[in-house]
Amino acid sequence: MSKMDKKSAPSADNAPEWQVAEAKNRFSELMTKAFTEGPQRVRRRKETVIVTAEGAQTTSPAPEAFPLHALEPATERRVLLIIGGGIAAYKSLELIRLLAKSGIRTRAILTNAASHFVTPLSVGSLTEDKVYRELFDLTDEAEMGHIQLSRSADLVVVAPATADLMAKAANGLANDLASTALLATDKPVLMAPAMNVRMWQHAATQRNLKELKADGVTFVGPDEGAMACGEFGPGRMAEPQAIHDSILNFYAQCKAGRPLAGKKVLVTAGPTLEQIDPVRFISNRSSGKQGFAIAEALAQLGADVRLISGPVALPDPAGVHTVRVESAAQMLAACQAALPADAAVCVAAVADWRPQSTASKKIKKGADGPPPIMLTENPDILATLSKLKTDRPRLVVGFAAETNDVEAHANQKLSRKGCDWIVANDVSGDVMGGDANQVAIIRADSVTRWPQMAKTAVAGKLAREIAAALA
Ligand code: CTP
After folding, report:
1. Separation between Cα atoms, residue 235 and residue 433, nearest integer Å
2. What angle (nearest 5°) sits at the alpha carbon of residue 158, between those of residues 100 and 432?
3. Could you say which of 229, 335, 346, 419 is catalytic?
4. Counting runs of H as helices and runs of E as strands, what totals does the chain give?
5. What CA dihedral angle connects 246, 249, 250 and 251, to 10 degrees?
6. Which of 21, 55, 164, 201 has the largest CB neighbor count within 10 A?
């Protein structure tokens, strides 16, 4: 009852469920139009495909009735890359190349400002596709409309995401092709910000960042370092490899589906803060990024996640029940209240010690010189959870942040704390606060070393390993 002029029927057997469902929906819409309006022309990669409907009476055929072959092969992975106008735009060329090597096709939108930094010709040569630039170019009947363009990929990536593009996306502005595509898309969005450090730190950009995160946009970077403008600080676009890793992680998470549905997982994150007096405290440099990314990745796989975090400047991750605490004692109490759980992942950099007593008034300078601060040891949350007689989570994972002899120290921690795995990470570089992490997974009988990856990619991979262990 339906046919196409080209018979290329990609197998949907291995396609993730969401992709198959979407393909069915799109095909169903197309067939409805074919029934009511006659043969439909659709663009499929570089060819035009004619879809016709013959003989059937109904105008609303059931999606399941149709094969998927009017659409892109369901297994082809496609990214819509929006290249913003910044010096980092040149790195997007390398990103396209890396994605192609991993079998991911890129379709690119270039903003006007971006075309001052990279030419449409170089972008188009690498994507092997038309480069989209003007909103009103797309009114041509032969072209794909901007709505269709914004939905023609599995994921929209903005790299570099300039302050301007972030501001537009956060406020729903749509006055050019890039911002219109961002407003019209129904696909997940990943942004790789790049801008001058002051622009990044400006309250307006930070406000936009918060809004975008709340809207479900994910981020990779920015990195800290020397910038083209001569300043130093956060604002450099993440390296193409890190953006590529985050994109692969997106696909891996989609493919994994929701294997943790029905499972409850407890995650600790961030530093703890131990009060000395009402204005002073002991804490550490943990940003919470790795723990938050793990909580989010576990939730993406369907887990009911309880994230217990010390003070960090990060918004609650999407789909995660977040509990904010300050001290180690509060963190332990919140963990105990969250039991029973199927797994616990202790990522928090819990302060080892706290002042024996907290002064109720600000300690003043006196003639006797600096006051002594007597410290006492904090409870070990990981060890407490690992050694529980009842309600011990089936899988308890700890982290070991080390600056030297990483695996040896991690091995000792595995047996000392009684947990099942230790994720050992080398914090001698700029891991704390940075976006990349290199870890090894230490189990009683094995060590698995992972290459350096974006923290979000580490999180996704760890979440999938946890899902496999709980299966
Ligand atoms: N941890 C914890 N409670 C503590 C201290 C650490 O739950 N009071 C957990 C951390 O969340 C991490 C693991 O134990 O999963 C290792 O933390 P780390 O700071 O690397 O080690 P420490 O136990 O503090 O040991 P050391 O100071 O000797 O490195």
Report:
1. 13
2. 95
3. 229
4. 14, 25
5. 130
6. 164
346 lines ligand 1 (CB under 6 A): yes
User: In this structure, which residue's CA is closest to atom 21 in ligand 1?
Assistant: 400
Residue nearest to atom 18 of ligand 1 (CA): 400
Strand 40-44, strand 47-53: pairing: antiparallel
Q: Are 179 and 173 in contact (CB under 8 A)?
A: yes
Residue 378 CB less than 6 A away from ligand 1: yes
Atom of ligand 1 nearest to the CA of 401: 20
User: Does the CB atom of residue 413 touch ligand 1 within 6 A?
Assistant: yes
Residue nearest to atom 16 of ligand 1 (CA): 400
Which CATH number applies to 258-355+374-470: 3.30.70.1730, 3.40.50.10300, 3.40.109.10, 3.40.50.720? 3.40.50.10300
Ligand 1 binding pocket includes 93 (Cβ within 6 Å)? no
Alpha-carbon span 281 to 93, nearest angstrom = 46
Domain spanning 77-251: CATH 3.40.50.1950:
yes
**What is the domain partition of the chain in residue ranges?**
2-65, 77-251, 258-355+374-470
Measured in Å, residue 2 CA sits from the centre of ligand 1 at 63
For residue 229, indicate whether it is catalytic: yes
Q: Cα of 444 to ligand 1 centre, how many Å?
A: 18
* Residue 348 Cβ < 6 Å to ligand 1: yes
Burial class (CB in 10 A: 0-12, 13-18, 19+), 44: middle
Residues 6+ apart with CB under 8 A from 339: 266, 388, 391, 393
Question: Do 354 and 310 contact (CB within 8 A), yes or no?
Answer: no
CA of 13 to the centre of ligand 1 (A): 45
* Residue in the block written with tokens 């002899």: 405
Identical topology for domains 77-251 and 258-355+374-470: yes
